[in-house]
Structures are given as structure tokens and as C-alpha cells.
């Protein structure tokens, strides 16, 4: 499934964080927790928040 790009935690995390940054006032720690609850890889979650919140 990963070859077909159906499971790409990094892309999902990036889109999720961009969306939340635009439509929410939640900070990076809360977004990381939300992504982990959605079973997104912790490393992908942290990378997205670090890149997009700088």
C-alpha cells in the first residue's frame, strides 16, 4: 500500500498541520497529540510541526 501512496504519514501530517494552522488556534504540542491519536507516526507528526511552525 505504501508504494501506491495510500499510507504516507508524512504527507498526511503536513496536510493536517497546515489545515489546523489556518483554521485553529491550537499549538504544535496539541497537534502532535491529535496526529498520534489518529495513529500517525510520532516522528512524522513532530517533523511536520517543526517545519511548519518555524
Automatic annotation (TrEMBL):
* Alphabetical list of InterPro entries matching this protein: RecX_HTH_2nd (IPR053924), WH-like_DNA-bd_sf (IPR036388)
Q: Where is the RecX second three-helical domain?
A: 8-38
Q: What is this protein called?
A: Regulatory protein RecX
Q: Extract the Gene3D superfamilies matched here.
A: Winged helix-like DNA-binding domain superfamily/Winged helix DNA-binding domain
Arranged from A to Z, the UniProt key words for this protein are: Cytoplasm
Family, according to the entry, reads as follows: Belongs to the RecX family.
Main localization, broad class? cytoplasm
Q: Does the keyword Cytoplasm apply?
A: yes
This protein's source sits in the domain of life called Bacteria
Spell out the subcellular localization from the entry: Cytoplasm
Record's Pfam families? Answer: RecX_HTH2
Lineage, highest ranks first? Bacteria, Bacillati, Bacillota, Bacilli, Bacillales
